[in-house]
Amino acid sequence: MSSKLGFIAIDIDGTTLVEKIDKNPLYGWRNTESNIRSSLKEYMKWAQEKGYDIIILTARPEIVEPALKNIKLGTLPTMDILQRLVHEENITIKQIARAPAGLKGAKMQELLTQYQNESNEHENAIGILFDDQLKQVHDVKKQNNPQLLAFDINSKEDLEKFAEIVELPGTHACHPYAITLKVLTEHSDLFNLKASINKLDPNQHFEVMNLLNHVVDDLCIRIDEARLHDYKPEIKWVETTVRHMHSLIDKIYFDTQELTCKDLKSASKEIFGHANPDKVKPNSKCDVLVQTMLLKAMEDVQANELQGARSRFENIKQKLMGIKKENQDIELKVEESLGGIKPS
């Protein structure tokens, strides 16, 4: 019998597992260990106690599973994950579902329909997907079904929505607020970035402060599990992003040094691998926030550069007008000295 409340579906690589091997295959070859996300285990245990079913929903074809068992790639076969959750965490997995087309929206709709067709008691059942890819979150939303939800595992805002649905108390160690608070007390660079944001004048920079605070929140979520399991690609990405965000704030809002479009393109290249932030295809809500900040900074810098060019043009224009007047005065004096005869 299925839960009348519905189900929580969890993705594997990058979601259930901290390591995202499809994005970092070389890391997977060199570092074969895989770690189940501690916070997700707590969320699943809590949701299960509340009465929700837990489903593994993966885009992996079943045919690749034997290879994953025989070759160490820094990931785990799906059945190994299931067994760990069952035996080590006492989490019951209702089923393993696969989305062969890659995108999971249609499969989520199919699963929810199965629940709702089971009995009248299931008509209010909901389906929640946890994933680390924004395209999967968007694909679920494209189903236009208010009883289907999808959350980015690295978004504090999304985790707060989930916490509200399953009534996870704010005092729980894995509540997103508790995670961000813990990371800010332990990670000096993130703490200092937050402090710099708080020094801005909210009357002048409210929108920017709000955007940057969301960036910090999501960076805290992203680095928490990465540091716990020493997942270096994610740690490096977060620390690189923190460094560039801090530099951006200092240069734009505290005038410590001039910020140029070249600086921003360099930041975008190091963070996203693409020098033009408008060409970046964000993979998470955190990516969207960082991209938005870079684009806003680019607009501000270009506006300042345009204003500077106008000022330089105006200065040159004034100098030329001054030179022209000086020449006219000289011509007038020469004309007067020649008794009114204009010099040829």
Overall residue-averaged pLDDT value: 88
Distance from N terminus to C terminus (CA atoms, Å) equals: 107 Å
Strands, total number = 5
H/E series: EHHEHHEHEHEHHHHHHH
Going across the biggest sheet, name each strand in turn.
Answer: 3-2-1-4-5
Biggest sheet features: 5 strands, parallel
Structural class: alpha/beta
How many domains? The number is 2
Strand content: 5-15%
Number of helices: 13
Task: Tell me the helix content.
Answer: 55-70%
Query: What global shape is seen?
Result: elongated
- Which blocks of ≥5 consecutive residues have pLDDT under 50? none
Rg over C-alpha atoms, rounded to the nearest angstrom: 29 Å
Structural notes for this entry:
- It comes from Legionella longbeachae serogroup 1 (strain NSW150).
- Keywords: Coiled coil.
- Residues 306-333 form a coiled coil.
- This is Putative coiled-coil protein.
- The protein is α/β, with parallel strands linked by helices.
- The protein has two domains: 6-153, HAD superfamily/HAD-like (Rossmann fold), CATH 3.40.50.1000; 165-338, no CATH class.
- It is 60% helix and 8% strand.
- It contains 13 helices and five strands.
- The protein has helices at residues 25-30, 38-50, 65-70, 78-89, 105-118, 134-141, 156-166, 176-186, 188-198, 202-228, 232-253, 261-272, 285-337; strands spanning 6-10, 53-58, 93-98, 126-131, 148-152.
- The protein has a five-stranded parallel sheet with strand order 3-2-1-4-5, with helices on both faces.
- Helix 6 (134-141) links the parallel strand 4 and strand 5.
- Helix 9 runs parallel beside helix 11 (232-253) and helix 10 packs across helix 13 (285-337).
- The longest helix has 53 residues, at 285-337.
